[in-house]
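User: Please fill in residues for this 369-position structure.
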């Protein structure tokens, strides 16, 4: 695929540096094995498990028009194989964006090493959040969730997913699972790994929970809201890294951030607390999508509130760090200005003193002959 970075030297084969430089090509070869498996009859059935969505059932005639699809899907063990294949696709796309977009920006802008890491992170997340927001909004519109909000909390027994809904969740899981090996491929610093692992783990936990409990529409709506706020965050970060005069844009994003967290909490409380899975059937059954029990409601609400509190705390911590850094920079600039002004004063003072010293003998007037 030609994703290998050009370097001045060729590292030894199968060495760590070789894997880091050529990981996209290696992953592409692994993915090609699954595609080639479709050619042969003996391996086609196994390859299809990795390439296409599994666990489909024919939709009843009454629900076929409402579903907008001839088949509906539920989750199962075979989904792990599909997630694995699309995780490989996510690694390839990640490497393509890195080499053909972000690396060119680095060479043009000549960022420092610290800024390069931040631009890489914000750039990759911006692309993912942008397409996820567009895709998720399209699904909400096509399944009439915006025109009929009751679909967000409606959960009938034997709940199923449409093709686009299941493929969205499979893609989301694949992307966040691919973020773990990317910590190694991108040479993430050891002090940044815990923060990244927690960030990735929280997304996986909530997406998986919505997927397994058939909270598909609710999870999709919350993801779109969350991704939109995160998109603004990383876009403001990119503008700030390119030119620090965009500091006001970051302040504007903070307002949108708080509003996004409030809307997310309101939607979660209204949906889970009052309408989720109906109010009559109290028999819990996660397989059929009935999670209308007090324990499940408390777990979902606690999880939603916890993630919002965690993200808000990270924002406050980030702003405090930036405030301290800005104050230190201002203090250092003031000290430099004072030192420069004092040097100029001393230099000017020395020039005056050397010409008007008290102990210098006055010039004698020459006698006229």
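Assistant: Residues filled in for all 369 positions:
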């Amino acid at each position: 695929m030609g994703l290998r970075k050009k370097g001045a030297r060729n590292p030894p084969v199968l060495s760590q540096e070789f894997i880091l430089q050529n990981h996209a090509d290696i992953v592409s070869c692994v993915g090609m094995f699954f595609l080639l498996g479709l050619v042969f009859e003996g391996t086609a059935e196994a390859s299809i498990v990795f390439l296409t969505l599994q666990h489909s059932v024919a939709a009843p005639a009454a629900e076929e028009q409402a579903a907008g699809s001839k088949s509906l899907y539920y989750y199962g063990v075979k989904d792990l194989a599909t997630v694995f294949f699309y995780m490989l696709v996510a690694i390839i796309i990640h490497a393509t964006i890195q080499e053909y977009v972000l690396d060119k920006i680095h060479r043009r802008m000549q960022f420092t090493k610290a800024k390069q890491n931040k631009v890489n992170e914000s750039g990759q997340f911006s692309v993912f959040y942008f397409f996820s927001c567009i895709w998720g909004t399209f699904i909400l519109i096509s399944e009439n969730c915006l025109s009929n909000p009751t679909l967000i909390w409606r959960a009938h027994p034997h709940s199923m997913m449409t093709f686009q809904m299941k493929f969205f969740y499979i893609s989301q899981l694949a992307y966040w699972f691919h973020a773990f090996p990317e910590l190694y491929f991108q040479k993430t610093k050891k002090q940044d790994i815990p923060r990244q692992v927690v960030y990735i783990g929280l997304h996986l936990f909530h997406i998986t929970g919505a997927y397994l409990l058939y909270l598909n529409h609710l999870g999709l709506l919350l993801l779109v809201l969350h991704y939109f706020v995160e998109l603004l965050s990383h876009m403001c970060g990119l503008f700030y890294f390119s030119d620090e005069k965009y500091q006001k844009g970051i302040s504007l994003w903070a307002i949108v951030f708080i509003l996004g967290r409030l809307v997310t909490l309101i939607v979660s409380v209204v949906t889970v607390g009052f309408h989720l899975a109906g109010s009559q059937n109290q028999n819990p059954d996660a397989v059929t999508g009935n999670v209308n029990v007090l324990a499940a409601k408390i777990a979902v609400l606690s999880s939603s509130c916890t993630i919002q509190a965690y993200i808000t705390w990270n924002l406050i911590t980030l702003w405090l760090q930036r405030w301290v850094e800005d104050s230190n920079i201002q203090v250092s600039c003031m000290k430099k200005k004072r030192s420069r002004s004092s040097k100029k004063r001393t230099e000017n003072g020395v020039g005056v003193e050397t010409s008007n010293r008290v102990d210098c003998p006055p010039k004698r007037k020459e006698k006229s002959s």
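For context: The first strand starts at residue 56 and ends at 58.
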